[in-house]
Amino acid sequence: MSMVHHGFLSLLVRLALGGSVLFCPWVMAQSQKAESSSAVIDTLTKEFEGAFPQNITPKDSIREFDLVAAPGIWGIIPPYRTDVWAYNQQIPGPVFRIRLGETVKVQFTNRLPQPTTIHWHGVRVPNAMDGVPGVTQPPIRSGERFTYQFTPKDPGTFWFHPHVNAAKQVERGLHGVLIVEDPGEPRYSQDLVLVLDDWLLEPDGAIRDRFVTRHDLAHDGRWGNVPTVNGRLRPSFSVRAGERIRIRMINVANGRVFAPLFPGLSPQVIAVDGMLTAAPFPLQRFNLAPGNRIDLDLIIPDTAQGTVLPLVDTFTRNRFPLTSFEVEPGTAVETPRFQTPQAAHFPDWGKAAEAPVAHEYLFDAVRGGPYGIAWRINGQAWPDSTETELKSGRFHRLRLTNESSRLHPMHLHGQFFRLLARDGKPVDERFWRDTILIGPEESVDIGLVPLDKGRWANHCHILEHAEAGMMSVVRVK
Ligand SMILES: [Cu+2]
Question: Of 12 and 212, which is predicted with more confidence?
């Protein structure tokens, strides 16, 4: 029966009962439904409890780091010298390693010819430390200093980069790594950070200096011609048979998605976007989109002595090597034995599909705007934007719908979420994310219990798309 008929019936009932709507069948059905969906949300919220901490008690230990963003020179493909913008004159920028409970204090100086900020990707920082201009802080002008200080609540692999003119600043080389070690986690033979990047270089080694082009915007952002690991084309690492290595892989590219694979080896994925998975799973086809991180547990087999183990990208049909591990002959070591680390608690969320969709975000592009093509969220291109609100400490299901034929790795600041469904079909991903790659014409549902209050950016991590409007703000109250 249609709503019109229900409305008509309820009017009749109301007239019969002298204005009371207590026994209106339609109103009763609605309120039962509301009750049951709020019961479902209660269950989902309860299942989340203990998944990650609301707060952390800082130890009495402040780790100070100096960080300077400035023009510099880097040998991406020696002997060519490339003019870059870099943190502390190195590509990638420094790796800041701290222990859980320690407070990070970064004394930052901007020596770039333009304003900048630093965003701590994936770190649940106080909102004022999130580095988003016009949302959490004013841009830091050329020559100015700013102190970022926070105590990370989660151990894991995080990174940092500018949030002003990011398509240009990140592409020119501004990115660094923050690792929060958990003293309770096992000791690997090596803890190796691999920063994956992708440069668009001219034949003389210079960075092609046209940014946010119409071509980039009509496609999946800027894809380059020189993939690098830790700022070098195809570097190699020396390892020994028997070693058990924790590899922390980060995609800092503007647009390129990597699907890293070690042919013939079976590393286990132990963390995604910084957070330990509910259980380790083999690395097979994992799309590491811009912003994403994975931590791997890799054992170098005894049989590999004297061989070279490549790491290849398999995202496109055109497979290419990223780096290789040279296994020294005759130097095998004993493999450290321990249980692979995993999340202490991971919510079941089997009922998540029964929760109503709290907000839907539609992504599309139109002609216009400062770059000729504008990327939009719900019909608006940043800074034109309507905030959405989420309640802190309550489960929400959000729907992200891609109405375009391009890729969009969507990144929500300050929160971790879990993929629940693709195109309405349930997906059982047993790990958290802060960035989710959405395919052409695809719609995904994500679930989260936001904890940290404030105004958090929600944007595409293809930095050209974000620059051309694909950003909005979610307010957690
Ligand atoms: Cu996008």
Answer: 212
Which residue, chain included where needed, has tokens 């802190």?
Answer: 392
Distance 111 CA to ligand 1 centre (A): 29
With beta carbons less than 8 A apart as the criterion, state whether 437 and 379 touch.
no
Angle, to 10 degrees, between the axis of helix 25-48 and the axis of helix 3-16?
110
Give the pLDDT score at 35: 56
Neighbours of ion ligand 1 (CB under 5 A): 408, 460, 462, 465
Threshold 0.90, pTM exceeds: yes
d(CA 154, CA 243) in angstroms, rounded, equals 27
Give the Cα separation of 131 and 135 in Å (integer).
Answer: 8
3-state DSSP assignment of residue 43? helix
CA distance 106 to 426: 42
Higher pLDDT, 326 or 36: 326
Cα-to-centroid distance, 471 and ligand 1 (Å): 9
Cα of 357 vs centre of ligand 1, distance in Å, is 22
464 Cα–ligand 1 center, Å: 8
Q: What is the pLDDT of residues 399-425, one digit of tens each?
A: 999 999 999 999 999 999 999 999 999
Q: What token pair was written down for 405?
A: 């034929």
CA 56 to centroid of ligand 1, rounded, Å = 34
- How many other CB atoms sit within 10 Å of the CB of residue 4? 8
Q: Tell me, what's the pLDDT at 32?
A: 54
d(C-alpha 281, C-alpha 270), whole Å: 7
Coil vs helix vs strand at 31? helix
Q: What is the tens place of the pLDDT at every residue in 134-143?
A: 999 999 999 9
Interval between CA 441 and ligand 1 midpoint (Å): 12
DSSP per-residue codes, 110-151:
E-SSS-B--EEET----GGGS--BTTTB--B-TT-EEEEEE-
Kindly report the three-state secondary structure assignment for every residue of 414-474.
Answer: CCCEEEEEECCEECCCCCCECEEEECCCCEEEEEECCCCCEEEEEEECCHHHHHCCCEEEE
Per the structure block, which two tokens stand in for 402? Answer: 């891609």
Which carries the bigger pLDDT value, residue 34 or residue 85?
A: 85
